[in-house]
Task: inverse folding
């Protein structure tokens, strides 16, 4: 029973079919053995014929003895035949056991083949192609009912995902109008001659909050766009150039925290503004991928922002990139305290943060890494987050490598 309860369904079906075949064969052989047995009937010696102890009486005794000898020989032959039959039955049973396992495996494979097809088709269907259906043809049986049930589930999931994406996109667009109105009202109030001190103070408090809400809405729009797969025109993008521009744009924030930046050639920490541009020029040939330039730029910016904003004072950032197995890899590492890997794995969820230092932070919306993960998946890549054993975080973005435009010097991966 333990064998039947463990393992795959095919293995369990094979064992059940084999046990059924083997049991049937054993019963058939046992019946054949029992029905083929014969008994030797012995004749009891009768009284000697009349004539006394003459010659005739002696001949009868000799004949009876001869009959008994023949009966013994017949019994021995029958015993040998029974033994051979028993041995042959055991050999046949062993052969039947092997044949039963083979037939059981073949039959189990044929029975489970439709389920394997349904499983493989279901695995191919993800959030990006929920429009696909199994559409299993054939007679209306249990397998087709299962496939139709899965198709109904996929249809409901597709409708739910589409409704969610429409809501996020529409809500983000609609909320921009009142935000713009509030920002304009603040500007008008502050621009008046000799505005009240309270008005100026209120405007100073509200502007950062409005900017934060605006960044949050922008993150919502990017997340919905990436999850919906609306990439627009795909063009070659040089990741090294995007990283260089992102680091250069954040040079002030890097300097304000006293961060040391180690680039692709190890020179980014020397003369920050010049070193940023010079450091990433050391990647030759350029690291190209293909996709939406705007979304890929936002991906890199979010990764760099995460490394700068959530770094410790006087910390460091290490940037590296390269090709591996036809994939473009961008790695951004930071130092800091030791993090829990379980909590790090949840950072790709919207509004997930690490610890109190990220909760309620005015510098982030909680959507940064979730947007990175969505953009990477939309481009056929992935995001990997690793808590470094020495402390800090390692962010790795893997994207399909591509050939650069003609004359760029990029090579096809």
Result:
């Amino acid at each position: 029973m333990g064998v039947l309860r463990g393992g795959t369904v095919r293995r369990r079906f094979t064992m059940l079919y084999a046990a059924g075949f083997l049991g049937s064969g054993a019963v058939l052989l046992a019946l054949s053995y029992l029905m083929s047995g014969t008994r030797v009937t012995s004749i009891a010696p009768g009284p000697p014929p009349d004539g006394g102890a003459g010659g005739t009486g002696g001949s009868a005794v000799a004949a009876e003895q001869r009959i008994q000898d023949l009966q013994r020989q017949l019994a021995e032959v029958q015993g040998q035949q029974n033994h051979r039959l028993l041995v042959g039955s055991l050999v046949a049973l062993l052969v039947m056991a092997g044949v039963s396992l083979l037939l059981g495996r073949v039959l189990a494979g044929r029975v489970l083949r439709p389920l394997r097809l349904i499983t493989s088709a279901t695995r191919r269907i993800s959030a990006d192609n929920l429009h696909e259906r199994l559409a299993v043809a054939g007679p209306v049986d249990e397998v087709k009912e299962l496939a139709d049930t899965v198709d109904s589930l996929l249809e409901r999931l597709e409708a739910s995902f589409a409704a969610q994406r429409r809501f996020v996109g529409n809500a983000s667009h609609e909320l921009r109008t009142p935000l713009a109105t509030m920002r304009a009202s603040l500007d008008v109030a502050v621009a008046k001659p000799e505005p009240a001190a309270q008005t100026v103070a209120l405007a100073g408090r509200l502007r950062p909050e409005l900017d934060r809400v605006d960044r949050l809405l922008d993150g919502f729009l990017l997340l919905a766009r990436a999850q919906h797969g609306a990439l627009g025109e795909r063009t070659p993008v040089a990741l090294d150039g995007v990283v260089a521009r992102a680091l250069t744009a954040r040079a002030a924030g890097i300097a304000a925290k006293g961060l040391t930046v180690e680039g692709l050639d190890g020179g980014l920490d020397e003369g920050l503004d010049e070193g940023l541009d010079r450091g990433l020029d050391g990647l030759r040939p350029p690291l190209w991928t293909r996709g939406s330039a705007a979304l890929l730029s936002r991906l890199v910016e979010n990764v760099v922002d995460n490394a700068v904003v959530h770094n410790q004072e006087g910390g460091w950032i290490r940037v590296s990139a390269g090709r591996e197995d036809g994939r473009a890899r961008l790695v951004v590492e930071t130092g800091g305290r030791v993090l829990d890997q379980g909590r790090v794995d949840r950072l790709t969820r919207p509004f997930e943060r690490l610890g109190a230092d990220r909760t309620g932070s005015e510098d982030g919306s909680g959507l940064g890494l979730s947007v990175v993960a969505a953009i990477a998946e939309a481009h056929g890549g992935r995001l990997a987050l690793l808590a470094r054993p020495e402390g800090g975080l390692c962010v790795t973005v893997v994207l399909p490598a591509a050939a650069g435009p003609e004359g760029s010097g990029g090579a096809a991966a």
